[in-house]
Design a protein that fits this description.
The structure holds 2 protein chains of 2 kinds. By secondary structure, chain A is mainly beta. In chain A, the strands form 3 sheets. In chain A, strands 2, 5, 6, 10, 11 and 12 form a 6-stranded mixed β-sheet that branches. By secondary structure, chain B is mainly beta. Chain B is about 0% helix and about 50% strand. Chain B is built from no helices and 11 strands. The radius of gyration of chain B is 13 Å and the shape is globular. The chains are: A mainly beta, B mainly beta. The interface between A and B is medium-sized, with 24 and 24 residues.
Chain lengths: ~110, ~110
Amino acid sequence: AQSVSQHNHHVILSEAASLELGCNYSYGGTVNLFWYVQYPGQHLQLLLKYFSGDPLVKGIKGFEAEFIKSKFSFNLRKPSVQWSDTAEYFCAVTNTGFQKLVFGTGTRLLVSP
Amino acid sequence: NAGVTQTPKFQVLKTGQSMTLQCAQDMNHNSMYWYRQDPGMGLRLIYYSASEGTTDKGEVPNGYNVSRLNKREFSLRLESAAPSQTSVYFCASSEGNQETQYFGPGTRLLVL
C-alpha cells in the first residue's frame, strides 16, 4: 500500500538549533511532494513543494527540503529554528496515478526559548 | 478573497444526531476534499471531489456522505453521529488533483 512515513513523532529543540525532519514515501514513478505546517490552533499551510527541477527546494520562513529520489525521501531542514517554529509538520505525496494527496502522520516540533 | 471557509467552527452532537459541515472556496478550484485529523494519525481523507459533479471515497468514508453542490461548495454529512467521529474536520481545495491544496480553518466536532 502507498504510504508516507514520518519517523519523528515529537521533536524538542532549543532556539538556534538545526532541524531535520524525515519523510519517506513508498510510491514509484513521478511524485509531487509537499510539506505543510500547522501552527497551534490554526489550519494547515503550505511550507514548500517539489514538482520537478532542482531537488533542493526552498520554502517560506527559511525552510528547505531535499528530494532524494534514490532514497524515496523528502526531508525538511532549517539551519536555525525559532520559538515561532513550534508547530506540527506534515509531509504529503501524490503521484501521477493518484487523484489525491497522502499525508504522513505528522511531527510535532517544540522549540524552547 | 477568503480562500476556503468552513462552518460551523465548533459543534457538539449527541450520538445518533445528524449534521452537515459546510465548505466553500472562492478560488475557482476544481478539486475539493474533506479530511479528519486525529491525534497521532495525521490527516485522513474522507471523501474528495476531483471536479464538479464527481465525488469519490477516500481512506475513511464510512459514516459520511458528501455533496458537491456546485464548483464552490462541498458539504460533508454525518447521518447518525457516533463518538468515533469526534475529530477536527478540514476541508481543502486545489486547482487540480495533484496541485497544492489550500485548507480551511477546520470544524471541531465532539460527539457525546
